[in-house]
Each structure stands twice: as structure tokens, then as C-alpha cells.
Amino acid sequence: xxxxIPTRRTRGRAGRSLVAGTGLLGLLALTxxxxxxxxxxxxxxxxxxxxxxxxxxxxxxxxxxxxxAVAVHVLQEELGIDARVQxxxxxxxxDGLDDGSIHAILEDWGGAPEKEQLxxxxxxxxxxxxxxxxxxxxxxxxxxxxxxxxxxxxNWENLNDFAEDFRTAESGSKGQLLNxxxxxxxxxxxxxxxxxxxxxxxxxxxxxxxxxxxxxxDRDGTPLLTYWWEPHWLNxxxxxxxxELPPYTEECYxxxxxxxxxYPEVDLPKFLNADFAENGGTAAEFLRNFRWxxxxxxxxxxxxxxxxxxxxxxxxxxxxxxxxxxxxWLPEQS
Length: 334
Description:
Residues 1-35 form the signal peptide. Keywords: Signal. There is one protein chain. The protein is of the alpha+beta class and 334 residues long. The chain contains 11 helices and 13 strands. The chain has 2 domains: 10-135 and 266-329, 3-Layer(aba) Sandwich (D-Maltodextrin-Binding Protein, domain 2), CATH 3.40.190; 137-265, D-Maltodextrin-Binding Protein, domain 2. The protein is globular, with a radius of gyration of 20 Å. The chain starts with 9 loop residues before the first strand and ends in a 5-residue tail after the last helix.
């Protein structure tokens, strides 16, 4: 749900309808809370294993919750290593990786590029841990029914002709472009300004607010232009169609204050605290090996939200049903 620009993990893409090919979908909508504690919570032992607990950052979006639940379960139940989740926004999670109070971020959308540069390239306190296996993308979307009735809206050059349809009390005389949590990575204000669009970016306040607005527009047949992303469980229930913005290019994202093109696709990466990566033994090796796909991630989220399961119970069920995948993650010495 957030995005980034480094070429090592982005891919260009064309707009497309968001219709998931699986019914195993759901949501865990979580809010960020609190800042990371300071100080490293563990160290390498004499046997090369990590002593103390492993702390995994869980930013406030659905994929992060599913990732963290399964990773913590495997660490605890398969490897016998103390582990817990720390709910944080992206910026605080990066600070935690730097000071050692956080050991891993399992899904990063590039919401803190300055900190990434500082901690990886300059300080060396954070290291890459491979890709998660999930490809993410952000864009602007409208309900399919509205797109079918107004196909011209799917080209950004025609958006101003439809601005009146999207007006709300919050957007005033302009059309509304609904955004989500203020902590999400978004360049919508810059894109609107640079493309001279007659729209106002309105903060919805949370992922749940976006979901409610999308469901309401789908149910009532009302116009809606919204920031949205994939993967997400809702894409199986509500058919959305992406508005085509100018194609993504690396040059477009060189100056983040003047972006005027689409968001890229992102091969979502993982990051580890550098000391933990070097001295974390099987815990660090497992987290490097941890890799699954969109359907796996969404299935765990569906168990939690759709069926009301506890996060730990949902992770346990997925692990039990996917022993082959879990075994592939486990270090040989375990």
C-alpha cells in the first residue's frame, strides 16, 4: 500500500482492473501504536544463536499483520525462539532497526527513503534481507460500474471533465481524491498539482475508512476516486478499475516534490538490523528465507478478519496447512 522508487525493487506497469483470482481473502486492519523501545533486545550467544527475543515491526496495513503473525509463530513454535510483534509506523520501524530495538521489517513499501539511505548506505546499521515474494502497487481507482458508465474517466487527461461528479463537502468546489492513513506513503498531492487536476486530496484517516468508502460506493452506485493498492482482500469483493496516470519512470521520481506519473510496482523487500543479521543465528537465517505469495498472505488475513480468529491462531492454521513451505524456510541446523 505504499511505494518507493529505487530501481532494485520497482517495476513499471499498465493500469488494470483489480479482480482477485482467489476467494481466500480477508483483512486485519491495525493501527500503529507507540514508538520503539530503545536499545537492542538481544545479542549473539556463544553458540552463535540469538539470545533474547526477536522483535518484528508490524506497520499499520494488512500485509504486515499477516507476515508478522506467521513469522512469530514459526520462530516460537518451530525454532523455539522468543519473538513478538511491535506495532509501528514505517518511520519509527526504521529508527528501531537502526538502534536495534527492532530486528526485522518484513514488508517495506519505501515510506522512509531518507532513513533507508541513512541507515543502509551511510551508517550500515540496516541490511537487506531479500524479497518477501509479494508484489505491491498503488494507484487511483474508481468502481467498475462508474468506469463502465464513464470510460473516459480512466485516462487522467479527462479527469477534470468529471471533477464535479467527485465533489464532496470536504473537497469543496473541487473533485475529491480520497486518501487513507496519513502515515501511508502517498504522492497524490504532488501528482494532482503537477498534472493541474481540479481535485483536492482528502485524508480518509485510516485503511478502514477507505474500505468503508469503497464498499459504500459499490453498494450505492456513487462516484468515488480513491487511492488504493494491491494486494488487498477487498479486491475480490469489490471490482475497481485503475485510472491511467502518465507511465512511471525513474526520472519522474528523482524529485519527490514534483512527481507527475504513476506509482511503480514494488517487489516488496525485507530488512534486518545489521547486528542481528550477523549474529542472529537461525532466527536471522529463517527471516531471510521467509518468502510467500499474495494468496498466502491474504489467506491469513481472511482467517483473522473474515472468520474472527486470533492472529496467533490464524498463523498456526496456515502453518499446519502449508508444512512444505514452512520446511523450506527453516535453517538446516534446526
